[in-house]
Design a protein that fits this description.
Oligomer: homodimer
Helix content of chain A: over 70%
Largest interface: A-B, 98 and 99 residues
Number of strands of chain A: 0
Order of helices and strands of chain A: HHHHHHHHHHHHH
Chain lengths: 425, 425
């Protein structure tokens, strides 16, 4: 016969299983982040290579490709050692994201071939790398969306947004490199660059909203004023070039180095974010294991008859215990729990669940922007028979024309969903 | 070495595991609903017993208690045979809810003792039954909030709201029974009854928004016009009684019977909702198993070398396949999948995940009202040092005074959170 205590113990064990799972996912996120960083650099060098005359940048590109091949193997090994037994929770979503991105990794050699033979334009190569990197970021997004612990979820949201901001910085590097390399920056390129800069800022703002003070400080310190000044000057050169004006291709290297310095600094902060995340997972696990041990001692005590069957009316009493306000720190670990009644523990757990659920809602709301944008994109794809990139480009163009944020455009598109003509089929 | 196909298979197996889990939870929901129905009747009879002079209603109450004891055992057996091994997903929340409600079930004999010895007022007994039933409904809520399949989630939301509406109808029966039994209905009782009637309607509206057409029709047919007319007349008698006016205690039985007829009709619809839910779970499982079999055949084919390693560029191509619009019916099951590439399947899966996620967001939004109310209640408890019932009563009073919905009051309370003085600790 199971009692409430058995279910309390089962709940605690589930919590521990989830924390273990989060620890493993965090390790995977770290390897994913490393490959993303490598592919971002590979994309930048591919752009330089494609935009420059014969042979330039080829040694650097070859070296980076070799580095990426090793990182890719590391990630594939990580996938290979994952436990893929059926599980509840976000398993189906995470595994599907991995299945998707593995297709992209399979196709990477063919992509490199197109670059090496100069068969593709810089734009086309950039789009291909973006798609692959987006696939990798989607794995991180899934992890951020699945964490059941608000503090861990907060760290994952900060990390995901930081990675997203860094990816936009990488796209900026690639676009700017193509512009300097070819000596031209047309109006569309300029507008696109401004949009990338703006979107980066917003991602970094979400990061700042959810990161720990330590990490916020680390990011402030990582942005060295002199590097930033150089980058801002070059941004101005591209974005204010008059139509037809020739850019100094000699500044290509300077642009690439300034962007790369920024991205390497971001990678440093990203690593620290990942460290903090793994540390937090370990700490939470230890705490939960301590609580489990207490509950198990209570179970032993009750089995040996030490605990009388409690059929008191206190369940129906309006307990005056003040629940923790949402912003309060976590309660101290159970101090002298053996003298506490199971009812106390059960009520405390109920209050905790409530608090956790409230906090999670708040944290996850920040992920909703991305979901809204994806949803609006899907709608455009369905109603206008557009491909994914075309739909995204349409929305980006609308955002730029109307001087609105992408998420505002997405909301507008979704609001029109009911009146859009149904053209599919 | 794992491939994308391995992860696609793993994702499908996770889906099946979740459907199995939902099937079991649905069975548990059904037993829970039965006990809730029994306890609602027990509460109504307890009110009649407490409000009436010596000995009246005692045989009926005794009989109902005996029936409830059997149903309670059935639910405890259900809990007993649950798999409580650690799992991911909503395991921790579900088990915690069960641990909580088991404490209430343990205390039920003591509650009955208070009623039998007439130690408690009808109001106090009603509050105790409400708390226990709310604990049982919270188990159903957890199930509704955890389903990953939008159609199943929709059915669970319909079922949960129907159960909630039925519980409000039960509270109406109990309050009205106490009023008729004692021959008095003061202004507070009248206002409370009107509020219960109003809240019922809203729950039933949400049910209608999410239920299948079959079930909506079933509920329309279940509301027999003559029963409803009788109930409405008695509602009017209570709610329009002038201060100090004596009610005809002879109408107590009529009131109880009219309410009971309505609730029994609701129970019939509730059972059909549960049937439909279990049928849908079984159907989804069969579908998923068929898809799994296809994927597994593909894996065998690839292992025997029939499938060449695919390193094509199609991953990077902007496929023109139109994704399904959110309101489209489910796609037909994979027709000739062995000739389809893994990339096709992976992309189809990605689109499906997107659609599922969008629909789930829509369905779950309807659960947010309840969450908002719980959150506002928690805030009031913390800031005004109120117990749970007192906090709920305060909000209900605010809603009645301002002629607002409870959720609107909750939103107002939460909006004030930052300016509320921090009095705790």
């Amino acid at each position: 016969m199971k009692t409430g205590l058995h279910f309390l113990i089962a709940a605690k064990r589930c919590e521990i299983a989830e924390l273990q799972e989060l620890t493993q996912t965090s390790a995977l996120v770290r390897v994913t982040a490393r490959l993303v960083h490598g592919l971002q650099r590979e994309r930048g060098l591919s752009n330089l290579f494609l935009a420059s005359p014969n042979g330039h940048w080829q040694p650097e590109l070859d070296e980076q490709v070799a580095a990426c091949v090793a990182m890719q193997q590391e990630l594939l090994d990580g996938f290979g050692s994952m436990d893929i037994e059926p599980r509840l929770g976000q398993g189906a979503r995470l595994f599907s994201r991995i299945a998707y991105v593995m297709q992209g990794l399979d196709a990477l050699p063919a992509l490199r071939q197109q670059v090496r033979t100069r068969a593709w334009t810089p734009q086309r190569a950039t789009q291909a790398y973006i798609r692959l990197i987006n696939g990798l970021l989607a794995v991180v997004f899934e992890a951020a969306d699945s964490a059941g612990d608000p503090d861990i979820s907060r760290r994952l949201v900060a990390l995901f947004n930081f990675m997203q901001g860094k990816e936009l910085a990488g796209q900026e590097r690639a676009s700017g490199a193509a512009a300097f390399g070819s000596g031209r920056a047309d109006a569309a390129t300029q507008q696109h660059l401004l949009h990338l800069i703006d979107s980066q800022e917003r991602c970094l703002q979400v990061f700042a909203d959810f990161a720990s003070d330590d990490l916020k400080r680390a990011w402030q310190q990582a942005q060295q004023v002199d590097t930033l000044a150089g980058l801002e000057r070059l941004r101005r050169v591209i974005c204010t070039a008059a139509p037809g004006q020739v850019l100094d291709t000699g500044q290509t290297q300077m642009w690439f180095d300034a962007c790369t310095a920024r991205m390497d600094a971001m990678k440093g902060v990203e690593d620290r974010l990942a460290d903090e995340l793994q540390g937090l997972c370990a700490q939470r696990q230890e705490l939960a294991r301590g609580e489990l041990a207490v509950l198990e001692r209570m179970l032993v005590a009750s089995a040996t008859g030490a605990r009388a069957v409690q059929r008191s009316l206190s369940f129906f009493e309006d307990n005056a215990v003040t629940p923790l306000p949402p912003s309060a720190p976590a309660p101290p670990t159970w101090a002298t729990p053996l003298d506490r009644s199971i009812l106390d523990l059960v009520q405390e757990q109920a209050r905790r669940l409530q608090t956790v659920s409230d906090e999670l809602d708040t944290v996850r709301a920040s992920l909703n922007e991305r979901k809204l944008i994806e949803r609006a994109k899907g709608l455009l794809m369905a109603h206008r028979h557009l491909g994914e990139e075309a739909a995204h480009k349409t929305m980006r163009q609308m955002a730029m024309n109307q001087n609105k944020r992408l998420v505002e455009v997405a909301e507008a598109v979704l609001a029109m969903a009911d009146v859009l003509p149904s053209t599919q089929r």
